[in-house]
Design goal:
The complex is a heterodimer. By secondary structure, chain A is mainly alpha-helical. Helix content of chain A is about 75%, strand content about 0%. By secondary structure, chain B is mainly α. Chain B contains 4 helices and no strands. The radius of gyration of chain B is 18 Å and the shape is elongated. The relative contact order of chain B is 0.11. Classes of the chains: A mainly alpha, B mainly alpha. Chains A and B meet through helix 12 and helix 13 of A and helix 1, helix 3 and helix 4 of B.
Chain lengths: ~375, ~70
């Protein structure tokens, strides 16, 4: 099987779209209330430091994923345990994101359609994309980035008319504590979730610098999320944002210029779909690669369909209802995801450094 | 029961066509992994079809972390 290669540009675009993913729908860091944009920027700084670590791991072992790297750090058995842990994380994350999309479609679009249908259609597309390989996904994301940029500029211009900057004031009203809490939750969701790229960036071009790719991707995405948070608060006000399931969608639906430019939320829905498609696909890819590494197989493609079905079915078990879906990302996810996103990668890096040192002293 | 039979039928058809290369090349390991993961996915689907209520993963995690970290 020939090795798949994605360029640094494609890699950065994938990171950008992946980070935005479902964050566009369920915004993050709202413990900081009106100062949410400051919390997101603070989380971005922490995220960049984390990407430095991730990039360091990938740069040390070019062409290898975290499954192979953890086998080097923890030995054969320890590596397999880490492999199982990350397979679970990928499956769980994929299911959460898919469920968010299904709830979005069922709440605002197809209310009478069973949740099964949009989820099934979406997962078929994701499985198809992954079967074609990450190269195809990389090229696809490059093309659809144009739509992202177009809607960003278009909506930025149009929404200026309904901006009310006073809704963002006073800044630092609640003190620093809520901002730090908001930053912690924004750090875990979405910046820390980029850990999935440790499982799929073995395909990154060896000439490309993983650090540069990861940092470029999340910096752009972080600035975008900070802008979205500030825009939503300045259009809707913090109380409405906190009580709305999908505040970005509601904020855009307020745009009405001369009764001509209106109902623009449909353009944003497409942006949501693109981001979530990339995120779910990459989670399936990471889990499939994990399965193939766990059983020492060469190719991951054979397991893509069963893994997609697992993600699809798991999405029915992750949340009870939409209320739980909106509360969980800020309440539980930061604590739950912290070991997967920070502790294990840092442990791997530390162990590899210790091993390298002991090897050098033995020589 | 009809719903479960239909779902099992869909899984069977997908599995049959997807595993043609493994069966032809006698790649038993891949075939078995494929079957096991498909059976797990099918089992989850059966639970859903039978309307057996489980506590959601999010509420289990919420309870765990509330107790573990003394969260509000």
């Amino acid at each position: 099987m020939s090795k798949e290669i994605i360029s640094s540009k494609q890699g950065a675009v994938l990171v950008f779209l992946y980070t935005l993913g479902d964050t566009l729908l369920v915004l993050t860091g709202f413990e900081a209330k009106k100062d949410v944009w400051i919390a997101v920027l603070l989380a971005l700084v922490l995220g960049i430091i984390l990407m430095w670590f991730y990039g360091g791991i990938l740069e040390k072992f070019p062409g290898m994923d975290i499954y192979e790297i953890s086998e080097r750090a923890f030995g054969r058995l320890g590596g397999k345990v880490i492999c199982i842990i990350y397979i679970w994380f990928s499956l769980h994350l994929g299911a959460l994101v898919l469920r968010t999309l299904v709830e979005f479609i069922n709440t605002l679009g197809l209310e009478s359609t069973p949740a099964l249908i949009p989820g099934a259609v979406f997962i078929i597309l994701c499985a198809w994309a992954i079967k074609e390989g990450i190269e195809v996904l990389g090229r696809w994301s490059e093309i659809f980035l144009i739509w992202f940029v177009f809607t960003f500029i278009f909506l930025l211009i149009l929404s200026v008319t309904i901006f009310d900057i006073t809704k963002l004031q006073p800044i630092f009203y609640g003190g620093i504590k809520p901002i730090l809490r908001g930053a912690f939750s924004a750090f875990a969701f979405p910046f820390g979730e980029v850990v999935i790229f440790l499982m799929v960036f073995d395909s990154l071009d060896k000439k490309a610098s993983p650090k540069k790719v990861l940092i470029t991707g999340i910096t752009l995405a972080g600035l975008y999320i900070a802008y979205l948070s500030a825009r939503n608060v300045s259009i809707l006000g913090i109380n409405m944002v906190l009580n709305d399931y999908f505040p970005t969608y509601t904020a855009i639906s307020r745009i009405n210029i001369g009764n001509f430019f209106q109902r623009l939320e449909i353009a944003v829905s497409l942006v949501f779909l693109i981001g979530i498609f990339i995120k779910v696909s990459l989670c399936i890819l990471a889990a499939s690669k994990g399965f193939s590494r766990l059983f020492n197989l060469r190719d991951y493609r054979f397991i893509v369909v069963p893994v997609s079905l697992l993600v699809f079915n798991l999405s029915s078990f992750v949340y009870e209802n939409i209320i739980e879906m909106t509360k969980a990302p800020s309440k539980i996810w930061p604590y739950y995801s912290f070991p997967f996103e920070v502790v294990i990668p840092i442990l791997i890096l530390a162990l590899l450094k210790i091993r390298n040192k002991s090897d050098n002293t033995q020589k | 029961m009809k719903e479960i039979a239909a779902i099992a039928g869909i899984y069977l058809v997908i599995g049959y066509f997807e595993t043609i290369p493994f069966r032809r090349e006698k790649r038993k390991k891949e075939l078995w992994i494929y079957i096991v993961v498909m059976v797990v996915a099918l089992a989850m689907n059966v639970f859903l079809s039978l309307n057996i209520k489980f506590e959601s993963i999010a509420s289990i995690l919420t309870r765990f972390f509330k107790a573990f970290l003394n969260l509000e």
